[in-house]
Design brief:
- This protein is α/β, with parallel strands linked by helices.
- The chain folds into 3 domains: about 220 residues, Rossmann fold (3-Layer(aba) Sandwich), CATH 3.40.50; about 130 residues, no CATH class; about 35 residues, no CATH class.
- Helix content is about 55%, strand content about 5%.
- The protein has a 6-stranded parallel β-sheet.
- Helix 3 crosses helix 5, helix 11 packs across helix 14 and helix 14 runs parallel beside helix 16.
- The chain is globular.
Length: about 450
């Protein structure tokens, strides 16, 4: 049975993708060393997080997916080694009551809570950027995060300020078992964040492969502003988090706009920077008095001001150019999808939406109209006929994709070791597949 659990609960945009990539990449090596990386897939941790936070979206999950948290708990409790690690950044949004309920599932195990925190001055623009990937239309300059007492506030001070998160998750724990990892300042060694995290989790000194590559998912001011304007025209069938994740975040933002963006980061207003500066100073003072185990320097989280422009400072001519490039890249993606057949995409929960190509074309055209780009509108109209044809072909693969998605859960169960299988759950899954898909 697991003797010690390290629960990494955030923060978003604090290098969590890199840390999780290192853990997954070295899963086998860690397992041989007696360390379990809990959660077979990242999407399972995402679903488990929804359950822990009693998110209303849980009711839209299948019974199998809604049991993700139970499976992770069982996996940790039955682990034959000494140590287990679970990392998911949006656990940081849990209430104190939800955190206590989650920790109670690990009675008899020595639980440690780990939180990674970054420079407050770069946190707020990053939070806004993630929100526009889910259809937010509010300009950065006037954006105010949801109230900190709102458990649905996934992107804002509620999840990125360590004082609140660690007060909720560390309640009742020995401060020595509450670990704060600060993100190193720019110019540090590339592996320094992992070094700090490894020390917090008792993994320092292990011969792991740190040569993982993670995609840069940041937008620059021009691409961010274009995406925000496109969001104003996105509607049915691209509605809800799963559709937004698949088409706005994964397709338009990450596959099209991010590669086109430059190295310029997002700026912030004077008022926003003053709030970040004040909050960071208060956080540093509070954290120094709590006796937490700190890896790094608390000064690393003190707000420094980003040097980039705000999206509102981007002129229309620059937006027109970015929009034209984005449409060209979307055409290439559509061509590849047509030639290679339907794919599941990056979001394993999502289904393709009817009218995808029509919506993408319309949104891009209207965004261009907003910038006064008559020539771009003309080019878009010329492409409409071909896009409609491609759309029909993409849509024709939808039925097959749904069947494959349903079959996936059954296959996963069949691949599990016999001792980990649940016969009753397996039979139910097979019956469901036969009834709904064959």
């Amino acid at each position: 049975m697991t003797r010690r659990l390290y629960l990494h609960v955030g923060a978003p945009k604090s290098g969590t993708t890199y840390l999780q990539s290192v853990l997954r990449h070295n899963r086998a090596r860690l397992r041989d060393a007696g360390v379990l990386v809990a959660g077979r897939r990242h999407v399972e941790a995402v679903r488990a997080g929804l359950v822990v936070r009693e998110d209303p979206r849980v009711r839209h999950l299948s019974p199998y997916d809604a049991a993700s948290w139970d499976r992770i708990v069982a996996e940790i409790r039955s682990w034959s080694g000494d140590v287990a690690i679970l990392s998911y950044e949006l656990l940081s949004a849990a209430t104190a009551k939800q955190a206590r309920a989650a920790l109670a599932r690990f009675e008899g195990i020595e639980v440690h809570v780990v939180f990674s925190a970054r420079d407050f001055g770069r946190a707020l623009p990053s939070a806004w950027q993630e929100r526009i990937k889910f259809a937010l239309t509010t300009p950065l300059e006037s954006w105010v995060p949801r109230r900190e007492d709102d458990p649905r506030a996934e992107w804002g001070w509620r999840t990125m300020d360590p004082t609140g998160v660690l007060a909720r998750w560390g309640d009742g724990l020995d401060p020595a078992r509450v670990h704060l990892v600060t993100v190193p300042p720019r110019g540090s060694e590339p592996t320094e964040l992992w070094t700090r995290f490894a020390r917090a989790c008792g993994l320092d000194g292990m011969p792991l492969d740190l040569g993982v590559t993670t995609a840069n998912e940041s937008l620059d001011p021009a691409t961010a502003e274009l995406l925000r304007r496109v969001n104003a025209y996105v509607g049915a069938p691209i509605v809800g988090n799963r559709e937004h994740a698949r088409w706005i975040r994964d397709t338009l933002a990450h596959r099209v706009l991010v590669p086109r963006g430059g190295k310029e980061g997002l700026g912030m207003t004077d008022l926003q920077f003053e709030e970040a500066r004040t909050r960071s100073a208060a956080a540093i003072e509070a954290l120094r008095s709590r006796g937490y185990d700190v890896h790094g320097d608390l000064e690393d989280i003190r707000a420094t001001r980003p040097t980039g422009r705000t999206p509102g400072e981007v002129d229309d001519a620059e937006l027109v150019e970015v929009a034209a490039q984005a449409i060209a890249d979307l055409l290439v993606l559509l061509r590849e999808a047509t030639l290679s057949g339907p794919t599941s995409g990056d979001d394993e929960d999502a289904e393709p939406g009817d009218g995808l190509t029509t919506r993408a074309r319309t949104a891009a055209r209207r965004a261009a109209e907003e910038t006064g780009a008559a020539y771009l509108r003309r080019r878009t109209d010329q492409m409409a006929g071909e896009i409609e044809r491609l759309e029909a072909e993409v849509r024709s693969g939808r039925v097959l994709q749904r069947r494959v998605s349903e079959l996936e859960d059954v296959v996963m169960e069949l691949l599990l070791p016999a001792e980990d299988q649940d016969d009753e759950e397996l039979l139910a899954a097979i019956k469901r597949y036969r009834r709904e898909s064959l």
